[in-house]
Each structure stands twice: as C-alpha cells, then as structure tokens.
Amino acid sequence: MKKLSVVQQKQQAAVMAAVTSLEQQALAELAGLVQCWFSLEYEAFPGSLLVRLQFSDDAALEQAQPELLAWQKKFSGLMLKKGVVLKEMRKHLVMTTLGPDD
Predict the structure, then answer these.
(1) Mean pLDDT for each consecutive 10-residue tract of the chain (102 residues)?
(2) pTM for the complete prediction?
(3) Which pLDDT belongs to residue 101?
(4) Is 8 helix (H, G, I), strand (E, B) or coil?
(5) What is the dihedral of CA 102, 66, 31, 35, to 10 degrees?
(6) Which region holds residue 84: left if phi is over 0, alpha if psi is between -120 and 50, else beta?
(7) pLDDT for position 92
C-alpha cells in the first residue's frame, strides 16, 4: 500500500474520529451491534465513503433497521463537525451482518 499524502491522512483522521464516536453511541443504543467499520477511496472522497454498522445476526439487524435514517443523520452531523459535507447522507451509512473480511 502506498503512503498516504498529508491531505489523505487528514481525511482518514476525520473519518476515524467520526466513526469511532458513532460506534460508541451505537454500541450503547443498538442491541446486537458488533462493530462499525468503513471503506473509502481517497481519490473520490467524500463520495466514496461507506460506513457499515455490523450486527451479529439478522434478527438484530431487522430490529435496528427502522432507526437507519436517524443513524445516517447522526453520522452526517459528526462528519459535518469535522468539516466534511456529505451531500447524500443515505448513501454513506448502511446496516449489515457482513464483516470487513466477508
């Protein structure tokens, strides 16, 4: 993997801070949440950013699904505090049972 530029390091730090904060809130409020993880392509940031809330099973996922919009808004707000505007917040956060290695 090539070394990240200074700008890319700042982008990664902002995303990590927002995702970590979101994960702490979600672990406290959502039953069955395993972890929160993200992927992004620096060349297409912030459009390529995708955060996933990973649940332990389908039952936990189904139970949390009605609150998806509220969590998308929370994440968008956290990113805005870091100076990153997400134009379409619904595209940047999803709920899943798949992990980073799946």
Answers:
(1) 88 96 97 96 94 96 97 97 93 95 86
(2) 0.92
(3) 87
(4) helix
(5) 30
(6) beta
(7) 96
Residue type, 28: A
- Cβ-based neighbours of 71, under 8 Å, separated by 6 or more: 22, 26, 53, 93, 95
Asked whether 48 and 40 are in contact (CB, 8 A), the reply is yes
pLDDT value, residue 102: 84
Contact 51, 19 (CB under 8 A): yes
In this predicted structure, what is the pLDDT of residue 84?
Answer: 93
Contacts of 101 (CB under 8 A, 6+ apart): none
Distances (CA, A) of 33 to 3, 29, 45, 75, 101: 32, 9, 26, 16, 17
Q: CA 53, CA 68: separation in Å to the nearest integer?
A: 10
CB environment 26-44: b (16+ within 10 A), e (fewer): beeebebbeebbbebeeee
